[in-house]
């Protein structure tokens, strides 16, 4: 996917906006090209499958969020403290993670979002600390906004019919 109006792209943008409160960290999505400046958070979504039935528009998407910093400039305790700030920004209020993500997205309906795994690693070859987590989500484009309502279902453009069972 990864088109500007695709659910995985919008999901990355919504999650990236959750990290605005974390100071001193650069946030990059997978669509960005070029070098990444330490310290940074990289966000990459991977569509797993379409749920319910093909062409339903309900997607299961996993989002990898990785925080990296150089070992030359930061200690292990400072790195862990910043990672906990990143983790806390996902649950900034009393609301669920799904609500937090949907609140930062215009064209996305988030049915479920949860942290499914964490991966603490140290990359010695690059002399960098890295720690990550994976967010599993179930999303669909918001039909009331710019999602399915923009499609033309007339006979003139019959290539945009959706399968309904």
Task: Please tag this protein with its features.
Alpha-Beta Plaits, single chain, 3 helices, alpha+beta, 165 residues, 35% strand, 5 strands
Number of helices in the DSSP assignment: 3
Strand order of the largest sheet: 1-2-3-5-4
**Name of the CATH homologous superfamily:** Phage minor tail protein U
Q: Give unreliable regions as ranges.
A: 146-151, 157-162
The proportion of residues in beta strands is 25-35%
Stated plainly, the CATH topology is called Alpha-Beta Plaits
CATH architecture: 2-Layer Sandwich
Helical amount = 10-25%
Domains, number? 1
> What is the makeup of the main sheet?
5 strands, mixed
List the helices and strands and how they pair.
Blueprint (H helix, E strand, L loop, with lengths): L6 H12 L7 E4 L10 E11 L8 E12 L5 H15 L6 H7 L4 E16 L4 E14 L24
Helix pairs in contact: 1-3
Tell me what you see in this structure.
The chain has three helices and five strands. The chain has 165 residues and is α+β, with helices and mostly antiparallel strands. It has one domain: Alpha-Beta Plaits. A five-stranded mixed β-sheet has the order 1-2-3-5-4. Strand 2 (40-50) and strand 3 (59-70) form a beta hairpin. Helix 1 crosses helix 3 (97-103). The two termini are 24 Å apart.
